[in-house]
Amino acid sequence: MAEAVESPRVARGWSRGSPRPFGALAWALPPVVALALFFLYPLALVVRQSFRPDTGGTSLRPYADVFASEGFRHALWTTVWLAPASTAGCLVLGFLLALVIAFVPFPGAKAVARFIDVYLSFPSFLITLALLFVYGGTGIVGSFQFLTTPWGVLLAEVTYFTPFVMRPLLAAFAQLDTAQLEAAGSLGARAPRIVRQVILPEALPALAAGGSLVLVLCLNEFGIVLFTGAKGVTTLPTLVYGKAILESDYPGACAVAVVNVLISVGLYGLYRVVSRRAGA
Amino acid sequence: MLVHSRKARWAVWAVFLVLFLPLFALPLLVVLGASAATHWSGALPSGPTLDHYRAATRGEALQALTTSLVTAVAASLLALTAGTWAALAGAALTKRHRRVLDALFVLPVAVPSVVVGLAVLVAFSQPPLLLNGTRWIVITAHTVLVTAFAHQSVSAALTRLDPAYEQAAASLGARPARVLFRVRLPLLLPSLTAAAGLCFALSMGELSATMMLYPPDWTPLPVLVYAATDRGALFTGSAAAVVLMAATLLVLFAVSRVRTRASYR
């Protein structure tokens, strides 16, 4: 059997339900090796560097320094409350807008849905750039220092990430049988009740999928925060950038990066487990 | 139709417009308007001009646009190859192994892209592979970041693929390689082009990892937009951003043409 596994002719990994699991594993190896070389190995080096302060040796010194600094605790708190708040805003707003597009269609609703698709392909810093004109020093609303507060970042994140919730929702709504709505309506249910008892249960998987993606993207958002140019708002990603590029403190940057990765991957994993349990 | 009375329907539409226009249409209109103006001190931009566009399509800015395009094309092709290979290999694995592979390939989405940039910078600034200061470090980071999206969309398409085609081909004696290239990949072509478009758009707008590691002679357009904004040249920055959006949309449109032609086959 061993030589059969070695021979390339048996590598039938492509066909589904292949009876030769070893051939399938061999075919899976090249992409995994590439991922390990260009992603996992660099990450491991970041973890190693975070235990090696500039003074030499191996110690927890970078972590102690980082945790002791006021700037880090501030950035940690901002990141941790801003991301769930933006996600909640996106879910509510995205659900409402998708509901109107799908079930109370107006002339041009299709064009709006296509506009959402286009919107997804633009970079996030565009929103902050626009808000700089609206709320910035000499902008439309005037010299109102709104953008340099976390609320400005919250507004920009909700604006940019809501379409990420709307797209899976619109796809889910397109598959919903409208006869269900008609039946509920003819039995006397009014619109709020139909939304709550018929549409919402159908939309839960899409909401969970969109919500988990938006949560992790908000935790990791960099461009929006960077473009506000505010010293007042720092999140963990901007702190990593500041420490590494502006201060050249690589051990400190790596320590912040490790904390950031743990939070992001942990929350993302948790969200996936919970939404799978919830039947989504 | 969820809302039956005419009055209620108009009320719903009014709420929709009040939410939708300021949030989604206004930012784009503002950037468009600013890119062709010299002042913005009132409600509307003033002093129409094309100077910013002239500046954004020559010299440094033109080079940045080429840099962005080359980086995005290279990164999406590499990511598409790796992601498709992983998805195809994953489809043949047992359920447990496939779950491990999926988790590995979704990881770059969960890890902040700034950290991916830092990791690539730390790893490839030292032997054995010295990429720091070359364009390859930017392309490597972009590829890592977009591979996850390519893998996700191709493996989602694979689960929707009807296995009857490949089974018929195999039962007629076609070799696995022939089944792959003549049956499965052509059937996957629409999803492959969609994934390529997604990867391209993501790479064109990538800022966070790029800021960590771009060498001075390989400056992508988003970095240039940030540099302009940072020194207060908001109008020039807007024009560069519009050029970035237009280039992205043009390529996406071309890619979608490929998709519609393929689906007629």
Describe this structure in words.
The complex is a heterodimer of chains A (280) and B (265). Chain A folds into 2 domains: 2-49, no CATH class; 70-277, MetI-like fold (Orthogonal Bundle), CATH 1.10.3720. Chain A is 74% helix and 0% strand. Chain A is built from 12 helices and no strands. Chain A has helices spanning 2-6, 21-49, 61-68, 70-103, 109-119, 125-135, 150-175, 178-186, 191-219, 223-228, 236-246, 250-277. The model of chain A is unreliable at 1-18 (pLDDT under 50). In chain B, α10 packs antiparallel against α11.
Tell me the helix content of chain A.
over 70%
Counted up, domains of chain A total: 2
What proportion of the residues of chain B form beta strands (DSSP E)? under 5%
| CATH architecture level-2 label of chain B | Orthogonal Bundle
Q: Which structural class do you get from the secondary structure elements of chain B? A: mainly alpha
Overall mean confidence score, pLDDT of chain A:
81
- Low-confidence segments of chain A: 1-18
Name the CATH superfamily classification of chain B.
Answer: MetI-like
Dominant shape of chain B: globular
Order of helices and strands of chain A: HHHHHHHHHHHH
Find the biggest chain interface. Answer: A-B, 92 and 92 residues
Low-confidence stretches of chain B: none
Helix proportion of residues of chain B, in percent? over 70%
The major beta sheet of chain B can be summarized as: none
Q: Give the SSE string of chain B.
A: HHHHHHHHHHH
Compute the gyration radius of chain B: what is it? 23 Å
Main beta sheet of chain A: strand number and arrangement? none
